[in-house]
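Give me the 3D structure for Zinc ribbon domain-containing protein.
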Amino acid sequence: MPIYEYECKACGHRLEKLQKVSAAALTDCPRCERAELSRLVSAAGFRLAGGGWYETDFKSGQKRNLAGEASAPSTSTETGGKTPA
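Predicted structure for Zinc ribbon domain-containing protein (85 residues):
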């Protein structure tokens, strides 16, 4: 079951609700009790990584984004003033 995000247009309260795909969207805000809730569009909480149809079948040429292929190695030297162990 997906988790849906809602926001009340009246008071700004935000909440998440685990619901079936076939369930009706919530309308009443639990904080102010007005019928002003609207469902938000949000990004998925996971990323498919590794080889598979979702990484290889829908990309053209050499465009791939596999988990083992890091873009550029980080060159950050921030260690809080301490030498890394």
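Confidence is low (pLDDT under 50) at residues 75-79. Let me know if you want a second pass.
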